Amino acid sequence: MSSHTNHADPSSQTPPILLTIAGFDPSCGAGVAADLKTFAAHNCYGVAAITALTVQSTQGVRAVHAASPAALRGQIEALAEDVEIAAVKIGMLANRANASVTAEFLDAHKFAHVVLDPVSRPTTGSADLLDADGLKFVRTELLKRATVITPNMPEAALLTGMEVKDLNGMKAAAQRLREMGARAVIVTGGHLDRPIDVLSEGAEIETFGSEHVKSPNTHGSGCTFSSAVAAQLASGQQLRDAVILAKVYVTKAIEKSYAIGKGAGPLNQLFRFHQEPPPRGVHEVPQHGMHPAAEPAAH
Ligand code: PXL
Q1: pLDDT for 190-220, tens place per residue?
Q2: Do 125 and 61 contact (CB within 8 A), yes or no?
Q3: Does ligand 1 lie within 6 Å of residue 23's CB atom?
């Protein structure tokens, strides 16, 4: 027993705890901020280890400052010693050293669910989110340590060296990634006119379509999708259902996205928490606690 007394309400159930290993985007559209909002929206508790500080706004990535491998190792080991991690989501890794630290961590812990989003390049901006040696390491070592990988079309092309421009290309790349050692693959087709995701798992290959949502505010769609898949897996869904639920969730979060900044605005991962503002003149009064109105009357 620790000497620390935990005063948490014992009636509140402990949620699944998810770890994201990813970069920080100060505009909070992508990276760990997107992941943590997505976990929260799925009633999960998120913890985060930072692989890199990116310098960016909604207008694009200007620079990347990778965390040292020791700093990354320290973060993930401290977390793993302290909390029970139901699933791990991996996003931007920045370089080979941090990809390698992540692989060692996965080998040491054998997590039930590992969702790898093989982030390599931002949609807009001049800086790579993964160096060339890191990409090689993801291809040869990290792929096979994940439960599922979630490349978009450019990432699937980069990993396989194939052209991925249409549905047939997505299917072929998904199969190729399986041959390269991935246990399951979702190639996300948000870049298509009619967005289709391709799932390759077992002997099956399946496609899932959705309506295209016309919005310029799609910054963080990939991070949000892979985090939603991780949250669904941690909550007990099978992969196929996790993909369907995550796709519906991302579509809705894009529909409800914000026009923030001068570039591609962020998704609204917290759309389920939306509440109509109270009518004018009505103020919410706390039911209990430290609000003066709730204090017992003095005798
Ligand atoms: O969407 C890919 C991505 C992931 N992680 C971080 C990013 C980006 C894109 O900009 O900045 C931290």
Answers
A1: 878 888 999 999 999 999 998 888 888 888 9
A2: yes
A3: yes
Determine the residue of 27, 35, 54 to mutate for testing ligand 1's pocket, defined as the one with the most ligand atoms within 8 A of the Cβ atom: 54
Q: How far apart are CA 153 and CA 173, in angstroms?
A: 9
The reply to whether ligand 1 has any atom less than 6 angstroms from the CB of 142 is no
**Beta-ladder partners of 114:** 88
Instruction: Please indicate whether residue 91, judged by its CB atom, sits closer than 6 Å to ligand 1.
Output: yes
Look at phi and psi of residue 251 and say left if phi exceeds 0, alpha if psi is from -120 to 50, else beta.
Answer: alpha
pLDDT tens, position by position, 10-37: 667 899 999 999 999 999 999 999 999 9
**From the candidate CATH numbers 3.40.1190.20, 3.40.50.300, 3.90.190.20, 2.160.10.10, the one assigned to the domain spanning 17-272:** 3.40.1190.20
